[in-house]
């Protein structure tokens, strides 16, 4: 993720890291959707 934040990695790296994080932390699709919606609707 560090390289992604610095702009040195491709878009898919962020998505892959997000999926790995979700899997490692036993997050469900519902958990992820709720977190994304919270961010979107608070903008």
From TrEMBL:
GO terms for molecular function: nicotinate-nucleotide-dimethylbenzimidazole phosphoribosyltransferase activity. The keyword Glycosyltransferase applies. It is an enzyme of class 2 (transferase). Keywords: Glycosyltransferase, Transferase. InterPro entries: Nict_dMeBzImd_PRibTrfase_sf. Its EC number is 2.4.2.21. This is Nicotinate-nucleotide--dimethylbenzimidazole phosphoribosyltransferase. The lineage of its organism: unclassified sequences, metagenomes, ecological metagenomes.
């Amino acid at each position: 993720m560090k390289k992604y934040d610095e702009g040195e990695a491709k878009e898919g790296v962020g998505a892959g890291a997000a999926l790995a994080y979700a899997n490692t932390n036993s997050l469900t699709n519902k958990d992820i959707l709720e977190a994304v919606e919270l961010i979107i609707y608070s903008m």
